[in-house]
Design brief:
Layout (H helix, E strand, L loop, with lengths): L1 H4 L10 H8 L3 H6 L20 E8 L7 E8 L15 E6 L10 E6 L7 E9 L2 E12 L2 E4 L6 E11 L7
Parallel strand pairs: 1-3
Antiparallel strand pairs: 1-2, 3-4, 4-8, 5-6, 5-8, 6-7
Length: 172
Amino acid sequence: MYRLASGKIDNPHKYVERLAFATGVSSHWLSSGIGDPHDPEPETSKEPLATPTMLTHVTVIPPEGEWYEVTAQVADIFLSQQHKPRDKKLYEYYYVPETIEYFTGFTLLVVERELRPGPGIFLAQREENGKKQLCSFQISYKGLDQSSTRSPDMQTIGRVRIMDYWELNIRK
């Protein structure tokens, strides 16, 4: 509970069911704050909701070899109620099909190229043995002081706006 409350758990939403069970409250109430904590779970459709998709260019980052471009169906974040992108031209998609040092496999990254000030996770690249490598760094603030984990050899690609599991059907 301490790790959750202090923000040290990366994906707290995956613990909602367990926390609800342990505390004796509805997972719906715990995740949304709507209703009474002891109401039964609302009925949900048996059919999974289809995620709206769109066709776009994606840069694929394989664990070995050169990065390459594909055209693929990805989640259409521009229809999202939670994330309101400003301009489609500011966003690029990167896909990690297999686990590499900084990212797990099947990770789709939506990256905003416009570098505005503020905290966040940033995608970067560096040259190692003549090959491009994907990496990341964080910028955070404590009061007015900014700290960054960026090393001098990193070239910033952009701020990660969305990072999610997504299985692409890759065709070169």
